[in-house]
Amino acid sequence: MSSKPALAHVAIIMDGNGRWAKQRKLPRTAGHKQGIKATREIVEASAEAGVKYLTLFAFSSENWKRPKAEISALMNLFIQSLQNEAQSLHEKGVRLKFLGHRNAFSDGLCQQIELAEELTCRNDKLFLNIAAGYGGRWDILQAVNHVIQDVLHDRLAASDINEDLFEKRLVTGDIPAPDLFIRTGGEQRISNFLLWQLAYTELYFCDTLWPDFDTDELKKAFESYRVRQRRFGLIQEQIA
Ligand code: IPE
Ligand code: IPE
Ligand code: MG
């Protein structure tokens, strides 16, 4: 086995808030609130473990189809969390960035996002990406549209389009692809998360519901990752 694989970028689908609440006969919103507590712990534990990039799936393009009351509760929680957490994230050296299509967000939420991004834009201890209003298909399409515009306006020759160039147009364009993907909550699917970016990411699924996911659970995921051999299509002897 080669030396332990580096772990720079972790991407997480934080799933299971609704079921956590249902098990306790609480409204789904209570699960989302508890989920925020887990998020706080995981952000800190990731930074301590030396993770450089943490990308959290908070709200998918498809989640817009949920009942209106749940959407509005979630949007209010986003605004509140930004108000409550931005300053302390800043003090911890976290750089916050939102990935996704913002057109359906309220002006108030967009404003909080911009304030938090601006406040933390010079930090570099941990790059924390919140994917909200995000869909992997949307991401690929917006990159295609950027490429088309560049070709139409003679900034790019069609013959120069390649994987590296295309990748830079994705919303994660300036950061490396995830090394480890974690999904909590028991489902084993990607649910339109980082479709292009996950091509060679190591996948880890666990049954723990997101509000119960803690530092010990995160360590289990990291341990599972540490013993994997990433081959990227090569054979074992080439890696060693
Ligand atoms: C994940 O938890 C949070 C969001 C999608 C916003 P869910 O709300 O999907 O919880 P479950 O899957 O119904 O338990
Ligand atoms: C994926 O969870 C999106 C987020 C966690 C933000 P979902 O709960 O929306 O996914 P499905 O519907 O079970 O695939
Ligand atoms: Mg879910």
Order of helices and strands: EHHEHEHEHHEEHH
Quaternary structure type: single chain
User: What ligand species are in this complex?
Assistant: 3-methylbut-3-enyl trihydrogen diphosphate, magnesium ion
Binned, the helix content reads 40-55%
Q: Enumerate how many helices there are, as a single number.
A: 8
Mean pLDDT reading: 97
Descriptive tags:
240 residues; 43% helix; binds 3-methylbut-3-enyl trihydrogen diphosphate
Layout of strands and helices, then pairs:
Blueprint: E1 9-13, H1 17-23, H2 28-48, E2 53-60, H3 68-91, E3 94-99, H4 107-119, E4 126-134, H5 136-152, H6 163-168, E5 180-183, E6 202-205, H7 215-226, H8 236-239
Parallel strand pairs: 1-2, 1-5, 2-4, 3-4, 5-6
Helix pairs in contact: 1-2, 2-3, 3-4
Explain the overall architecture.
The protein has about 240 residues and is α/β, with parallel strands linked by helices. The chain is about 45% helix and about 15% strand. It has a six-stranded parallel β-sheet, sandwiched between helices. Helix 4 (about 105-120) links the parallel strand 3 (about 95-100) and strand 4. Helix 1 (about 15-25) packs across helix 2. The protein is globular and about 55 Å long. The mean pLDDT is about 95. It binds 3-methylbut-3-enyl trihydrogen diphosphate (2 copies) and magnesium ion.
Short description:
With 240 residues, the protein is of the alpha/beta class. The protein has helices at residues 17-23, 28-48, 68-91, 107-119, 136-152, 163-168, 215-226, 236-239; strands at 9-13, 53-60, 94-99, 126-134, 180-183, 202-205. It is globular and about 55 Å long.
